[in-house]
Recover the amino acids of this structure.
């Protein structure tokens, strides 16, 4: 029986033999979305736009970049000055990395607020954490490629951290460097991996989306859909919403690209790398600063490295640390306060990470680090046992139309009239 869903005969012919169009129609047109999803659910789409932009601009930049310590800095300058619209490609790529992290961090905090990581979406969350780690690795290697002062010294400091591990640490550092110092082999392998990893991210992203579609998207109420009355087709309702959000995102992004393209970069990285001149204050890009602050907050080198990696690892086990049966912070008044305290804590860590490791910034960084780990390892498990959530609505439709609710664990009867 021939599929009459598509009017174009060529599409019907292809779809009969390779049903890719039917799959896309099912997953991105008919796919039921909870009707109460707001614009906070649009940041996943913005992250996909950012990833596509980074890959496309990166491919064109790679055509003109020279991964050699003698030529790398000058090749970037040539892209900016001599390649047609090279300045635009470079600014789109450099600022695109920052905006990729902005929308990803907002996406993560939205997931934390609405409890979207809880059962049955643990695998979706784990894949999201893997994507975050891949993003960080890709961004770090990309930051080295311009071969400016901060690129060189940032690579030297960060790769040297692995030497803190007993026995194998020095071997890991030598393997990362491709020699006994950050030099040409290091730049070559970082360039190769920086080019490769975005395509690995694409694969992980497809798995992430597939996992989302298994149990459906989460929603602000945090309860599952109970039928067609609780959902709407993805198209046109959410495609329009995502398109509008994308327009605002791209407009905000364009302001940075065209009017302040260097505001998110470090001035020292506009100087050629010089192994004989150490910058006064070595700092990574802004999206690494909270983790950099955790690294410096622990006096012991090995402890600092474990703390930095542990800050990401604790996110991977989050679904099993949060013992509350209620997902959304809308119905968890105590959790809501602790959530905003965590947001403030992360901003404090980011600010401390950009300051010199001296004076008042040391105890502030240590206190913020302690609160960060306490939130996940102590506060969340205890809140699930001690907090009394507010009444949940009987259904998504009820929460949208009436705002009514029933006590957690009771038999839903709908709102009283």
């Amino acid at each position: 029986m021939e599929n009459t869903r598509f009017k174009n005969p060529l599409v019907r012919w292809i779809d009969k033999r390779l049903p890719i169009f039917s799959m896309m129609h099912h997953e991105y047109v008919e796919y039921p979305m909870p009707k109460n999803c707001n614009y906070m659910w649009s940041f996943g789409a913005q992250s996909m736009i950012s990833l596509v932009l980074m890959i496309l601009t990166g491919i064109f930049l790679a055509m003109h970049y020279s991964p050699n310590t003698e030529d790398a800095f000058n090749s970037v300058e040539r892209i900016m000055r001599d390649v047609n619209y090279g300045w635009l490609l470079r600014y789109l790529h450099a600022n695109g990395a920052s905006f990729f992290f902005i929308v990803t961090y907002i996406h993560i905090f939205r997931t934390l607020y609405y409890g979207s990581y809880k059962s049955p979406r643990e695998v979706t969350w784990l894949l999201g954490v893997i994507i975050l780690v891949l993003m960080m690795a890709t961004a770090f290697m990309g930051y080295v490629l311009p071969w400016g002062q901060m690129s060189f010294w940032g690579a030297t400091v960060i790769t040297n951290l692995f030497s803190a591990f007993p026995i194998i640490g020095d071997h890991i550092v030598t393997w990362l460097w491709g020699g006994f110092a950050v030099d040409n082999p290091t730049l070559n392998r970082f360039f190769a991996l920086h080019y490769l990893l975005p395509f690995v991210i694409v694969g992980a992203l497809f798995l992430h989306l597939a996992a989302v579609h298994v149990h459906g998207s989460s929603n602000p109420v945090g309860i599952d859909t109970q039928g067609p009355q609780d959902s709407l087709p993805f198209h046109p309702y959410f495609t329009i919403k995502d398109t509008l959000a994308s327009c605002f995102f791209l407009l905000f992004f364009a302001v940075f690209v065209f009017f302040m393209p260097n505001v998110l970069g470090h001035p020292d990285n506009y100087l050629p790398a010089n192994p004989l001149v150490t910058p006064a204050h070595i700092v990574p890009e802004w999206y690494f600063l909270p983790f950099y602050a955790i690294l410096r907050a622990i006096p012991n080198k090995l402890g600092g490295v474990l703390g930095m990696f542990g800050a990401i690892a604790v996110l991977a086990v989050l679904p099993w640390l949060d013992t509350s049966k209620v997902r959304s912070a809308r119905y968890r008044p105590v959790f809501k306060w602790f959530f905003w305290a965590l947001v403030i804590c992360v901003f404090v860590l980011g600010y401390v990470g950009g300051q010199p490791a001296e004076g008042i910034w040391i105890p502030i960084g240590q206190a913020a680090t302690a609160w960060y780990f306490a939130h996940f390892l102590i506060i969340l498990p205890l809140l699930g046992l001690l907090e009394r959530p507010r009444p949940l609505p009987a259904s998504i439709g009820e929460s949208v139309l009436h705002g009514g609710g029933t006590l957690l664990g009771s038999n839903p009867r709908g709102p009283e009239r």
Notes: The longest strand covers residues 32-34.
